[in-house]
Amino acid sequence: MRLTRFAEFLEKLEKTSSRIEITKILTNLLNESDQSEIDKVVYLSLGMLAPNYQGTILNLAEKMMLRTLAYAYQKDLTEVTSLYKKEGDVGLVAQELGERLKVKDKNLTVTDVYEKLLAIAEDGGGGSQERKVGKMAKLIGEIDPLSARFITRIPVGKLRLGFSEKTVIAALAAQDPKLEKEIEAAYNIRPDIGYIAGLVKENKLDTVEPEIGVPVAPMLAQRLNSTSEMVKKMGEVSVEPKFDGLRIFIHYRRKDNLIKIFTRNMNSIDIDTFPELKEVGKFIHADEAILDSEAIGVDPKREMFLDFQKTIQRRRKHDIGKTASEIPLQFQIFDLIYINGKSLINEPYLKRREILEKTVQNGGLLRIDENVITDNPDVIKDLHQKYLKMGLEGVVVKRANGTYVSGRTGWNWVKMKEVEGTRGKLSDTIDCVVMG
DNA sequence: AGTGTCTGCCCC
DNA sequence: ATTCTGC
DNA sequence: GCAGAATGGGCAGACACT
Questions:
Q1: What CATH number is associated with residue A21?
Q2: Known catalytic residue: A242?
Q3: What would the pLDDT profile of A367-426 be if each residue is shown by its tens digit?
Q4: Closest among A46, A158, A42, A22 to A91, alpha carbons compared
Q5: Structural domain count of chain A
Q6: Nucleotide nearest to A313 (CA to C1')
Q7: Whole-number distance in Å between A129 CA and D15 C1'
Q8: Is the same domain home to A349 and A269?
Q9: Domain extent at residue A344
Q10: Nucleotides of strand D lying closer than 7 angstroms to a protein CB
Q11: CB of A259 closer than 8 Å to CB of A251
Q12: Quick one: A326 exposed, middle or buried, by C-beta within 10 A (0-12, 13-18, 19+)?
């Protein structure tokens, strides 16, 4: 697909606010894209180059984009900066300067542009900022002003077309509710929207299975601060402590000792960041497993939990030895998504926990969250008080027979942090002091 | 080696 | 993470 | 109620400069 054609679609999408209408336009865009380029069309329309978990990062944002525009259009940085301050958007600045200079497009395709952006992302090391700016400026000089409007917004993360992955899935399904459910399920176990779009085109969705090394989209908790409402919505529940740490997924394969770690946002974390997990196989009684957990810092005597700001200091690549001894981590395991080639996503929670308790050696590095099964709101209330007194964040309450549903859909997991009945961190009144 | 600036679909 | 808005 | 966008505080990584 020609970039100019692609830009026409994006312009139409930008002008549209009704999601139904956006979805129709997207369906047309996807229909016009062929098998070899549909992934790139999808990535760029969402302002991305690759799924999160591949760690493809441009390291070129607002400030460098302004330098890029100054270089590309031969203007002073101060002039570009003041234009940017006025417009508040690099895309409008690029389009305007491009129109003034009558920049002509060189018949680039979406694939061409995608590859050039990828090359910018892959550049690094000494002098790379200058090279990135140079490559980006060259690209801008080869595309028409309307395309520049959108392409320049991609690195700064401000495409803002009013849709995201969910809407792309709806567009891929093209009004077929059954197909939409299938695409959604496939996307949740392989959260690579470009890849999924390709599979839909080929009619090969049924090949998707969880895999060691590919993150599953995390299940998230809704917020509720009434225990009786929890029981009303979920019936029998499992009540567990909520730790204030980092959501961590641990993937393990014994055969080649493959250990992969992902965050809640499905970003990959280098194993050297958490060296204690290099031995995780000793504590897992399975050949393959995907564990859902919260990593939490403890004081070196292992007598108390550390707060989030301390725990997050462990998310680093340098000075690991020193930090690791100051901030030992333990992993509170609370779910098992996959074991020995079998997905547990559609198993009820208590069944998954039963297998989890047999699979993970509880104590030391890995600790299985304690839990109480109940349908009594007062029991939840008491546990909530108990965990708050222990310095924890509160409780997570899980529907006993709920499957592992990615995202915040439905009432399967609920969290309660503050005292029951309050409105959350910001209360109705705020203490303030007038300054100056 | 130390400091400053920018960046991060950062983490919460 | 929270909060707000359009649908 | 959902999807998307906008917002914040704090921290470490990457690179440029001296």
A1: 1.10.3260.10
A2: yes
A3: 999 999 999 999 999 999 999 999 999 999 999 999 999 999 889 999 998 777 654 333
A4: A158
A5: 2
A6: D11
A7: 7
A8: yes
A9: 222-416
A10: 2-6, 10-16
A11: yes
A12: middle
